[in-house]
Amino acid sequence: MNTFQKFISAETTSNSVTHELLVRYHQHLRETAQASPATMRRRFVTLRSYYKWLEGEPEGIASPFIGLRLDLKIPQRLPRPVDRPTLTTLFKSTKHLIELNPEDHLLNRPASSEQITGLIVRLLVVTGMRIGEITHLRLMDVSGACSKIRVHGKGNRERTVYVANTRLLSDFRYYWEKRSRAEDPHAYLFLNARGDRLTEPAFRKRLRTISNSLLIAPYLTPHRFRHSAATLLIEEGVDIRIVQRLLGHASISTTEIYTKVSDNSLVAAIERADTLAQVDL
Questions:
Q1: pLDDT by residue (tens digit) across 47-78?
Q2: I want to staple 60 with a disulfide (CB 3.0 to 4.6 A). Which of 55, 71, 151, 167 is the partner?
């Protein structure tokens, strides 16, 4: 409202808000202020609600939005998963909790924050969990010899995700068993250095540090790993309804967006077919 009031003061001496003024404000936000589509939509929704409220007042006036049509659609942005080469580079830099060579690890050695970060990243890629979901996991949410995780998702909906990778399962079981021996089942699964729950901002900061050290740009974010989980599964031919269930999407249309960014399978199929080679002899 303050932004709109400043715009009115600069544009006119009248207190009257007309269709023309609203159109000029829309143009100002787009061209002068270079506001994002989401910001523009948010500001116009606020204005529309305000004038609708004024209409209901005893001395209310007709809303200037009546009969006005403005394009406030937010363009659909494609997800940006972490590509396979970047994932490979990342995982090479993050040590497992249990190394393949028995001489390379000591079971009584506490896991470092770098190892726990690597464990969380691998879980995000395999399960597609949101960062808020994984940081709020409790020890009692893990079952099935650590192969099943009960997730409390959006809208208070519960779902189950699975840890299928053998090596990740070994790391995860080792970590969970050590934590379970020392903590109450209601304790949070992942902690920070002070022994408190690992927060979402703290984990994002860890990823920013890793991105800088490995020269990864754009930098890594937790949600990009969720995008990677969906994209990798679709590229491997997993049914989209299973991916929907894994991610906890209420609508399959939300999951379908990943089919637009998953082009590895398409490229591989085209290369195998090589139709031009059949005619350009």
A1: 888 888 888 877 777 888 888 887 777 666 77
A2: 55
